[in-house]
Amino acid sequence: AGNSREFTIMANTRPPNKLLTLVFVMKPGHVLLGYKKRGFGAGWWNGFGGKVESGETIESAAVRELHEESGLRALGALDEVGVIVFEFVDQPQLLEVHAFRTENYEGSPEESEEMRPQWFEFSEVPYDSMWPDDHLWYPYLLRNKYFDAFFKFKGHHIVLDHCIKERNSSESSQVLTQAG
Is the pLDDT at 88 greater than 50, yes or no? Predict the structure, then answer.
């Protein structure tokens, strides 16, 4: 799956990666997405997530962000399905996004100041109103596959390069920082 290029770890010449989370709430044949009303990615549909704060684990940040943005509370452990590294031209810090999936939650999706949640059938995911890389890696998420990915952007609309590597659920994520 993905392309056949190998991934290489870039020499540590950059500041530490900025840690972020994305949570995707699933039910059979459907994914819950949020329409971003403000901030980074405003005007696009996405999962629920944000920055990992000092003292938080990545998973606890994901649980907190899901609740803040959708009103839902995750029950039990989240399933980390992927790590996606984003490089933006002229930005020294890489964004390291940990993507999680869950079907175990309580509550009903509620609109927040930041996000407006809506269920989508897998066949109706609104890729035209999403980040331009999403159509490349969402199929892994929707097929219950585990993956690592790297995307290099110019601005917020042009993907210059990318790599996606499928992995087994038992394999540790290999944080990808450069396309090979």
Answer: yes
**Residues whose CB falls within 8 Å of the CB of residue 80, separated by 6 or more in sequence, listed in order:** 58, 59, 98, 99, 100, 173
Residues 6+ apart with CB under 8 A from 14: 92, 93, 94
* pLDDT tier, 11 (very low <50, low <70, confident <90, very high otherwise): very low
pLDDT digits (tens, 9 = 90+) for 149-171: 999 999 989 999 999 999 987 66
Geometric angle at alpha carbon 98, from 92 and 104, rounded to 5°: 160
Query: How far is the CA of 77 from the CAs of 53, 86, 102, 156, 174, in angstroms?
Result: 19, 25, 8, 32, 21
Place of tokens 């992927």: 82
Give the CB-side neighbour count of residue 122, counting CA atoms within 13 A: 11
Q: Is the four-CA dihedral 169, 25, 124, 164 of positive or negative sign?
A: negative
% of residues, the chain, pLDDT over 70: 86
Compute the distance between CA of residue 17 and CA of residue 135 in angstroms, rounded to an integer. Answer: 24
Q: Which two tokens stand for residue 4?
A: 């056949």
* Burial grade of 89 (CB within 10 A; 0-12, 13-18, 19 or more): exposed
Q: Residue 116 CB: number of other CB atoms within 10 A?
A: 16
pTM value > 0.70: yes
Cα–Cα distance list, 140 to 63, 94, 146, 176 (Å)? 21, 22, 7, 17
